[in-house]
Amino acid sequence: MRLRFAAAAILACAGHALAAEGPVVPAFVEETKTSGIDSVYTGEWQYMVGGGAAAFDCNGDGFEDVLIAGGEKPATFYVNKSTRGGALTFEKQTSGLEFDAMTGAYPLDVDGDGIMDVVVLRVGENIVMKGKGDCQFTRANEDWSFAGGDGWSTAYSAEWEKGNDWPTIAIGNYIDRKQELEPWGSCTPNVLQRPKPGAKGFDTPIELTPSYCPLSMLFTDWNNSGTADLRLANDREYYEGGQEQMWQVRPGQPPKLYAKEDGWAYLRIWGMGLAGYDLDGDGYQEYAITSMADNKLQTLKEPPKDGAAPKPTFKDVAWPKGVTAHRPFMGNDLKPSTAWHVDFQDVNNDGLADLFIAKGNVSAMPDFAMKDPNNLLVQGKDGKFIEMAEKAGVASTETARGGALVDFNLDGLVDLLVVNRNSPSQIWRNVTSGAGNWIEVTLEAPGSNVNAIGAMVEVKTDLGTQTREVTSGGGHVSGQSGWVHFGIGEATAAQVRVRWPGEDWGTTYAVDANGFAILDKTAATATAWTPPR
Amino acid sequence: MSITRRRALQLGAATALLGLLPATARAADNGGEILRQWYKVVLMLVRHTATYSPPVASRAFAYLGVAAYQAVASGSTSLVSLAGQLNGLKALPPRDPAKTYSDAVITHCVMASAVKSFFGNTGPTGQRVMAAAEKKLKGDALQGLAPDVVEASLSYGEALKAAIIDWSATDGGAVIENMGFPMAYEVSKEPGHWNPTSAIRQQQFPLLPKWGQNRTFAMPSGASCGLPPPIPFSEDPSSAFYKQARDVYDVTTHLTPEQVAIARFWSDDPMLSFTPPGHWIAIAHDLLAQEKAGLDRSAEVMMRLGVAMADGFIGCWNAKYQFDYVRPVSVIKKLIDAKWEPLLITPPFPEYPSGHSTESGAAAAVLTSIYGENFAFADRSHERDGLGARNFPSFTAAANEAGISRMYGGIHFRPAIEQGLEQGRCIAQFAIGLRTRSST
Q1: CATH 1.10.606.20 fits B3-168, yes or no
Q2: For position A199, what pLDDT does the model report?
Q3: Which of A155, A320, A520, B190 has the fewest Cβ atoms within 10 angstroms?
């Protein structure tokens, strides 16, 4: 939803001096009990994966509201009632999104009316819910010819293919849940729902076969070409003859898998979560892929230096970067870890993206840690990450699945929501002392892709250049649509450019530190915005 | 070759001449099919249970084979108990002569129960599969039987399973932690010795370093079929060591499509397949299914195969950690070509001898003793993984191909393959020599 409140003066700098050596240790306070959020993702076998959350603003106040999947129980929706910098406060509200059998959800303004819609992933029929405003939603499968299917859906991503006025949605499906004796090897087809030519709504789905039981998928511009491809994290537990995949998706053409001949490297892991971020500033994103007993951080093996097109050959740098997170870093349970939701966010505003990983045993698997703390890997200036979850106060050992790293109280610090299986979801407020300055921007574009999904946002400060892709998908059945956050250290202002979807880099906007800015593609300057409360 | 090994080969040859198993043997009920269905479940569980590296899988196949065999032998006038023949296996519970039993129900019960014990650590989907299989196969086994027969058979099956599990608990391989990777281990810094070959943190220490000291099944000890030392390390380009590395490099940089297919077919990676011993169990399963073998024959084949391969891995691991030999990838990258990459994932443990070669040598020897030389067969065990079928003129040919596949895959030097196959053939003679028929 477009923000209701127009420009206002950006608040004065609230930044603090950064620590002289090493990254500032982030600090979080758990506010689950007082937040109003009281939700449990639960259920038997069919809910061993999943447990996601969607964070998005559906009432135009700039604060992101939350939908949390409940598994076999109805999902719960919460309106964000927090005030700026205050305690995280939510109020349960009936929204129309309270479906049972929900594994996760992603916000997406499908029809481009400026009111956020939601794609609901389920064990059974998936449902696309049209936003009506004020956080009320109505089913739109029939109106938009959205094929809900009858699968066990565990992954999603969306983009606007160049020239289209309607999104392309990819849905990842898990195993055939009716196969009791031979469930392995029964991965059901993933599908791609493209726009119906010349009309509103979706065309007949295209099967993305072979399908290998993805637990995450992400349309991402991995080669910095201005066009996204579909990256999948596939769960090797269930496929036969499978591997990690990336589909080349080009307008008007059938999807094509990247193959060995293209440079695609064979990788077979328990792929469970996926997130991208250009960590080294070379214009190409690194990808974190979560798994069991090991996690990957992939970077292009041979990034071209001469402007040539890179090959999709990635190498793993998780170990040298310190993000293998392969077993618990605290406690006595040192068995291998099980990792799910993953996201890059700068939690201490030092201008370096940090990495959060949700951890939790699949279901009483004795060879893997039962007390498996979530990771908060904070990046240092040398590009290596340091585990700080315990010091930061977010090292929960509940059985985590999905999550969202969002500035829920609009104080410039990224807060944390984690969805647990069979125990209440948890929420933490970021109260880091000594954090750096920040900016948060939102993109507005004319046409149907109003939130500019697929855009690249570049922020230049004295620290250097940071670039983030605006995506819809990834993580582990959890997504968000709202402010794009950047920590900028001691900088007091930033130069911001956007590479709008399918176009070249646009105007450079000046954005002051510690404030929110609306970047309207049609405007020459950024519009400052102030939270209403 | 050691004296022990020569004796073993002589023993095996003599036993093979006697003709172990009549191909026409048939059980009177559906026990053979029920047993094979359980093996299908086990093959899936091996692939999908995180602790089931190849040595661990071979152990489970051995105990399950012995359990199934004893389920039949306990009520047979022609089959001989393995108690006293297998190391540490003392008297097993007898059946009550006053009661009537069903071999099929006992077999189902002992398999269901033992599978739950060996794979109790599998994930939620495996648990669901075990429960569904037990329900279905129990129904198949119980069909048309009197309640007292069912009760007696189930009760005996539980007692037999308990005895087998008790026996298994003391062999040194019952507890697997950290997926088999030790939490502490001193990696040799000497050249020519194993060092980590991947960037996976868990695999910086080698897999199951003490497996070679486990109690063996039919052979006296893990050292019973010892091997000569591998070629000594040298960086001299004229040395035998350098030449064996160059051999791997030359072969792998000029692989034909057929060689690539062979490497992939026998790759048998843990967690992505039913492992090398599972591959041979799958071959045996399909052969038994084709001939619609009865319970006694099915159980005996699976028992001998399982025992031979489990002993094979113990013997192989014993040698691996005796010599602690370096992998080709470490050598070739250092001495020949820093950018060289093997086709297959280099397993995280010492090189010499090749595990797949040892167990393939053992498996082929057992199956040859049963089906005879030059028994042609089609191996369709990887069709679901899209690898198609491969045809072999004999089990020996299949084992030889499995062995050389490791060189095509770039994970073994040639001597490790040749010596591994030889070691496997030696070890198999102890399983082949087990007395199973009262007439032999």
Answers
A1: yes
A2: 85
A3: B190
